[in-house]
Amino acid sequence: MFFLFQKAADLISFINALVDASKPWVGALDVDYNDQMYWVGSGDHLPDTNSNWGAGQPNHGGSKNCVQFRKSELKLYTRPCGEADKYMCQRY
Fold first, then answer.
1. For residue 83, how far is the Cα from the chain centroid?
2. Is residue 85 part of a domain?
3. What total number of domains does the chain contain?
4. Nearest to 54 by CA among 68, 42, 41
5. 91 inside domain
6. pTM exceeding the 0.90 threshold for the entire prediction
7. More confident position, 64 or 8
8. Parallel, antiparallel, or unpaired for β 75-79 and 66-70?
9. Residue 37 in 3-state DSSP?
10. CATH number, domain at 50?
11. What is the pLDDT of residues 7-63, one digit of tens each?
12. Cα separations (Å) of 86 from 36, 61, 66?
């Protein structure tokens, strides 16, 4: 199954409806460690100004190079990529 989301808000709604995990990885990360998040696959930029980021996010400090969705807040947050968790998008 493949879905294309034109807006991050559409992705947030989709995740909230289908995901049972509390903090899944959503398929965006800082690929080249330049403090810019990109969607895996398309390579589209996820701007820091996106309204779906949680308070104080994105936090590019340290090793927080992956993006997770916090279902409890319906917002996006950065986190270390090495943290095991469920995911919404297959990582290649």
1. 14
2. no
3. 1
4. 68
5. no
6. no
7. 64
8. antiparallel
9. strand
10. 3.10.100.10
11. 667 777 776 776 666 788 888 899 888 889 998 888 888 899 888 899 999 988 778
12. 22, 23, 13
90 burial type by CB count under 10 A (0-12 exposed, 13-18 middle, 19+ buried) = exposed
With respect to residue 61, please indicate whether it lies within any of the assigned structural domains: yes
In a domain, 89, yes or no: no
Q: Which domain holds residue 24?
A: 8-79
**37-39 β-sheet, strand order:** 45-46, 37-39, 25-29, 66-70, 75-79
* Per-residue buried b or exposed e for 54-85, using 16+ beta carbons within 10 Å of the residue's own CB: beebbebeeebbbbbbebeeebbbbbeeeeee
pLDDT at res. 84? 63
Tokens 């996010």 belong to which residue?
57
Residue 6 has a pLDDT of 58
Cis bond before residue 80 (omega within 30° of 0): no
